[in-house]
Amino acid sequence: MNIVLIAIQVLGVILLAPLVSGVIKTTKARLQNRRGPSLFQVYFDLIKLLQKDSVVSPTVSWIFKIAPYIYFAGAAAAAALVPVVATNSSSVFDFFTLIYLLALGRFFLVLASLDAGSAFGGMGGAREIFIAILVEPALLLSMLTVAFKAQTTNLGLMASIVESSPLSLAYVFAAIAFFIVLIAETGRIPVDNPDTHLELTMIHEGMVLEYSGRNLALIFWATAVKQLIMMLLFILLFLPGNVFGSTFFVGIVLKVILVAVVIGIAETSTNKLRLFKVPSFLAVSCLLSLLALVAQ
Amino acid sequence: MNILTILLLFTTLLLTRASELKTAVRIIAIQSLMLALACTAVGMETGEVQIYVAAILTVIIKAGFLPYVLMNIVNTLQHEREDHPILDISYSSLLACIAIVLSYGLIDQALPGAGSRDALATAVAMTLIGLLLIITRRQAVMQIMGMITMENGIYLVGLSVTKGFPIIIELGVFFDVLVAVMVLGILTSRLKLAGLSTDTSILKKLKG
Amino acid sequence: MIAGDLYYLMLFLFSTGMVSVFFTRSNANLTNCIAHSIALMGSIVAILCAIAIFVQGKVDVVLLVMLPFGPIGSSIDNLSAYFLLILGVVGVATSIYAYGYSREYYTCRLPLMAGLYNAFLLSMVLVFTVGHVVAFIIAWEVMSVVSFFLVNHEYEKKGNTRSAYIYIVMTHLGTVFIITAFLLLAVGAGSMDFSQLKGSLVSENLRNVIFVCVLIGFGTKAGMVPVHIWLPRAHPAAPSHVSALMSGVMLKTAIYGMCRFFLEFLGAGPVWWGTLILVIGIITAVIGVLYAFIEHDIKRLLAYSSVENIGIILLGIGAGMVFMSKQQPIWAGVAFSAALYHVFNHALFKSLSFMGAGAVLQATHTKDIEKLGGLIKKMPYTAVFCLVSSLAIAALPPLNGFISEWLTFQVLLFLPHALAGITGKVFSAVLIALLGLVGALAAACFVTAFGITFLAKPRSKHAKEAIEAAPTMLVAMGMLAVLCIVLGLWPRGMLAILSQTLKSYPGIDIQGLVMHDWYVLSSPPGPSDGGISTVAIILLLLSGCALAMLLHSIFGKGKVEAGETWTCGIVPNYHMEYTATGFSKSIRMVFKSIVHSHDETLVNASDNQYHGRKLFYQVRIRYLFDSTLYRPINNAIIRTAHFMKSIQTGSVQLYVGYIMAVTVVILIWSTGW
Hints:
- Chain A is an all-alpha fold.
- Helices cover about 70% and strands about 0% of the residues of chain A.
- Among the domains of chain C are: about 270-515, no CATH class; about 600-673, no CATH class.
- Chain C is built from 25 helices and 7 strands.
- The mean pLDDT of chain C is about 85.
């Protein structure tokens, strides 16, 4: 377990996450016949936010103040656990640890949304929790195909097993299932709209409505990092190197861009689902995973 | 002894036909007298003193004191008839006959070739008929009659099988019946004061 | 022998505590101090005794009570010691807590409560340690009765007596099954001693019957679905420190009984035993957490959460039994370790939660979280401890709940080793998915509970006037919170204890778990090599925090202005805050078939149709098992009783007639006519 490599990985993920968001935004814009913002726009936004002062409501408590740090810490810790650079089977890279670290961040963020005492925050938090509840079994199921094959939840081992096995229908099903979960977890259309700021149509944005300035920058950044982590997981588990090109760094970057473009296309081609249709959407994912398990 | 047994059976049958309370009391007195005579007969047979004592006690208490008390009670009551028993008089006589047949059959089955077959059968019959009286009569006094009949039947068993109970048991049994009748007396006088009837079927209202 | 002496000392202390209230009953303060101090000492001795047994090995003690069949001998082995340790730890915390909490009960029969509290601890010690069937049953009954009185302590409050009544009925139903199981086994073994029951010779069918009896009997006490209905009624009714003890330790007496039976007396059985327990476990977990989420009475919520955690423990036990029956000792060891680890964790964080709820209850005199809020500013320390317990229950790293949940997940992942084929895989997959659902729901539930209780503005006068809890209560809660964190960071210590506990049972091999560094927890070696490293988690989190703080101040500190929460221009008040009912609405809708909730909106229109309307929103929940299982049984019993009532007409003649009929029949029958 090379600490330097891990540090480089974490920093790399954190620094490159906004770029991926930029790619998605540009894809969507081009598909909508717009020029769209520059690829690095998210960086500019973050830098701008990091320079701004914050307005904090007097209703809040210390939880509101520490939540962005914990959310960011959770995302950064999870970034260290994705075995991109250091793909060895050290016992640190565990799938459940990753999921639960992200959940830790979400826990505090939802608490913070309740803290300000506004109805928007509460509603956003409630919906976020609702989707998190439904996503969890779908996520676990979609990962199980690979986990059963590899007999472990160690991400490094899972990735190497995927590399060494041929493409099969089971993997395709599991890949589609995981893709659906990816969309739900990162809050993209059709589950949530990350671009609007109408309080009633957004879930994640509604939750962080009370944040401003540097805290908001941290939260945006952490969300982007989380998105990149999920995409990396998707790539490592379901787009293995032996089928889709080389495993090394360049290959991964290309695959990330590819996945980002696909997400953008998916977002543009469909509309946001009503909140109570999301369970059936995720149920499709669960069924596909179960099919993949049976077909294996 | 056998004649006395048959007379006892006869009185018991008569009892089932009595619908006036005074008649019933008189029949009970006669029945107890018969029993005392039977006791005396057994005493003459065995020659033990305590059986004579038991016979005298029976005469005094069961044939003398009890009917006297019961007559007093009946006199204080308003209804001196068993107006509408649960089962018709004729039917209860019929049932009594069936009881007698049943008891004879039972005794033949259980103890074939017993010497005191008649006495035993009469005793069982008297017990059953006593129960029958309690079941089919509404008036409390009539139910006491039934109880006394049962009592007599059991006493008869004791006479015929073991030639008399020990004196302690005799005294205990007498005391038992005495107390029952006393209670009845007190109860009826209370009921008379309150102006209610001794019809036991009104106890049904106490059901939960 | 040290352990034996400590054991006698412990029994002596608890008995003294029980008796002392007679002498101090005139002075409430003195009763409080003395009774709870003695209980505290007893609990400390319990911990020492358990440690002594772990170090020394099994110890045989003889209790000097002469029963008709001789003195009771008990040999306290490692399994008893483990549960004794749990009792001791929770007992210490609740006894310290009870100092401050009992102040509320100075006018409400405090001597009785303090005496019963000691008796409760004593009875649980006996349950864990006796080794004789009859003694066990007596101790079990004493525990049930004492806890009944404790649950019914505040009988003036409406509904408490009914809850206690349902509790005692259900627990006795369970006891019937337990007695049956024990007696069947004892008949087969020819002796009533626990050490002899192992070699009991019973037929295969009888073993199955014993298994079912054990499951139902101990499951009733543990709060297994469908016999859990007493739990959400009884735990809220009891005083908070007693609830903590009940939820933390009394439920575990049932798990202790199950472990004794499955590990020692019955041994490995057919596979369907384990799968049945797995199915029941997951159903229990899902139902428990669903109902917890939609509750808005704090203590009922915690009670349902206990049901959920018992479900998770049952998952571990079931998986262990499956592995045992398929001769996979290593995985059986991991499974039972997962279950027992969760037992300890649950005892810790659930007691902590109940203590927090008790503190809130004492401060605000209401259990309804919809009337609370803003308590984090009035009760800051309580809020911190409640946050720790919420994080632990939600199984988030780096606390202890995460570790036992991780172990359970691993165990379920390896279930297809034992249950071969597609069915095994699909079954295991469904279990894992549902366990994930349970975990997410639990997190959501405690986000709601903590958020609505402590955060934002107070929603009622009571909440506005809350004050911080007494120092002893805070100390007790702090102790348990620290333990939660320690157990989350140091799995090796717990695993060492667990390996000691489980090492002497056939069919279990636990060596693999302990052979690593102090911060590493890993699955057994082999093709798998999964694991977690708590140090890594903590370091990563801390460095992430550091990075965040670095980024935060990369352009200077920045000003922080105060600006009121945006509520469309109106001055915000507590009416605008979100409610717990609203939080759980979406889940109520999705899980409509299980949680039948009737949402009623009552409109109270005023005269003016444009202004001044009030809307009331009410949710009524139809509890699934109450309405589909227990109410029909109740009605059937009442109908049968009505039917039987027709025998009793009140007529004297009829009663004598019954006698006559029976007499005649017996006469005829006996003479053989």
